[in-house]
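[step 3/7] inverse_fold.run input=structure_tokens len=413
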């Protein structure tokens, strides 16, 4: 029996990207800067002192970070013995966005340029917005600029309630985000508008349309809800989700993963909000998973709740909480099981602005029969997909190299 659990700690970069300067991210280091702030007592909100990640440290997270930047993040000192195979990987896709990271780690790096809405005002082409209003029966839209999601609600949320116009905005990523009040505008209506926007955005090669529902009565009380939904462009080439499904295996996606892959190669998608619920859903999926099953979960709050909001203490708290839940999963790994933890890009909460940061990502692999040790600095996140294919004994996508030795897996039951 062979099963793989792939956990994406969304935005947990470990610095060190050789091309970071091209993204104005030279020196960005999500994990390193969080750990440093914690060690300096600068992240003592709802937690205290140095970052404590005993399980992730045992799996080699600190060493993976040291491999990337040359510096061991404080608090992530080398434990007595490493439990897993650790390393880090550079991203070769052109963008530092979520779809690029997820596609690349599943064997489909993105070499084409997404389309971007760049200007700060009138960002989104008039044709697209006119057609969206016509087809969705909207009285127009608000926003139409590059913005941060919370700030724009404060600025335009009340006008949205008065006018019924949804708020459209973009970021440094290839995204068209649409915010609307979950009750006043309606959640299903927002999803319908986003589905139309997805069709219209295709010709501009926009990677994602994102529904951003929110609640609250006024600018002081607006909050985004957990009903966010992503409408992605499909991966540019087959992923291991496609190949495993075609080979008769099963792909179970937890959280926003199914949406990211536009549900291609996805057997079942399980929605859950908040890291604890996401972990509960992962454990439930894992407990019911049979032979040749891939369970893939994205822990989105690191990025959306803490990284983009530049909330260092919150990010540290979320890391410590997830770390405390990991033993529940690790204790369920039986012979023939493999668990890989990684990230899709960085989002350094100490960095200027509110956007993602170009960084390497950690790659931690653990399971009975997987010899602990170092897998080095990997050339691409696609090495993860190649390793998963190798583990399942199926053809890979042609991108990436397995971090397992050729004959290493033959003795695993
Ligand atoms: O500021 P909010 O709405 O959270 O947007 C963020 O979320 C998007 C998806 O990760 C990114 O493109 C970034 O702009
Ligand atoms: Mn992401
Ligand atoms: Mn993000």
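[step 3/7] decode complete -> sequence:
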């Amino acid at each position: 029996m062979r099963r793989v659990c792939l956990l994406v700690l969304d935005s947990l970069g470990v610095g060190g990207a050789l091309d970071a300067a091209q993204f104005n991210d030279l020196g960005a280091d999500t994990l390193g800067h969080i750990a440093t702030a914690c060690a300096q007592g600068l992240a003592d909100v709802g937690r205290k002192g140095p970052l404590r990640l005993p399980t992730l440290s045992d799996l080699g997270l600190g060493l993976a970070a040291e491999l990337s930047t040359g510096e061991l993040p404080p608090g992530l000192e080398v434990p007595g013995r490493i439990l897993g195979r650790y390393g880090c990987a550079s991203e070769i896709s052109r963008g530092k966005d979520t779809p690029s990271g997820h596609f690349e780690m599943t064997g489909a790096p993105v070499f084409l340029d997404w389309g971007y809405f760049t200007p700060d005002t009138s960002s989104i082409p008039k044709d697209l917005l006119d057609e969206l209003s016509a087809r969705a029966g909207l009285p127009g839209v608000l926003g139409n600029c590059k913005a941060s999601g919370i700030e724009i609600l404060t600025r335009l949320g009340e006008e949205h309630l008065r006018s019924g116009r949804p708020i459209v905005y973009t970021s440094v990523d290839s995204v068209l985000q649409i915010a609307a009040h979950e009750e006043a505008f309606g959640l299903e209506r927002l999803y319908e508008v986003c589905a139309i926007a997805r069709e219209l955005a295709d010709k501009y090669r926009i990677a994602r349309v994102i529904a951003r529902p929110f609640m609250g009565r006024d600018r002081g009380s607006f909050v985004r809800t957990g009903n966010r939904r992503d409408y992605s462009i499909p991966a540019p080439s087959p992923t291991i989700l496609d190949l495993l499904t075609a080979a008769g295996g099963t792909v179970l996606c937890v959280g926003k993963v199914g949406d990211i892959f536009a549900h291609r190669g996805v057997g079942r998608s399980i929605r859950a909000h908040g890291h604890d619920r996401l972990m509960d859903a992962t454990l439930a999926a894992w407990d019911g998973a049979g032979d040749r099953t891939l369970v893939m979960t994205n822990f989105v709050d690191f990025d959306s709740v803490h990284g983009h909001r530049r909330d260092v203490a919150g990010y540290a708290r979320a890391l410590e909480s997830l770390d405390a839940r990991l033993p529940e999963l690790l204790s369920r790994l039986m012979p023939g099981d493999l668990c890989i933890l990684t990230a899709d890009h960085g989002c350094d909460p100490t960095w200027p602005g509110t956007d993602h940061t170009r960084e390497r990502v950690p790659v931690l692999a653990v399971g009975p029969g997987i010899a602990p040790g170092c897998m080095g600095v990997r050339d691409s996140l696609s090495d993860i997909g190649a390793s998963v294919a190798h583990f399942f004994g199926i053809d890979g996508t042609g991108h990436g190299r397995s971090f397992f030795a050729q004959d290493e897996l033959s003795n695993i039951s």
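[step 4/7] annotate
The domain at 126-232 is CATH 3.30.70.1250 (Alpha-Beta Plaits).
Residues 10-11, 98, 303, 344-345 surround manganese (II) ion (ligand 2) (CB under 6 Å).
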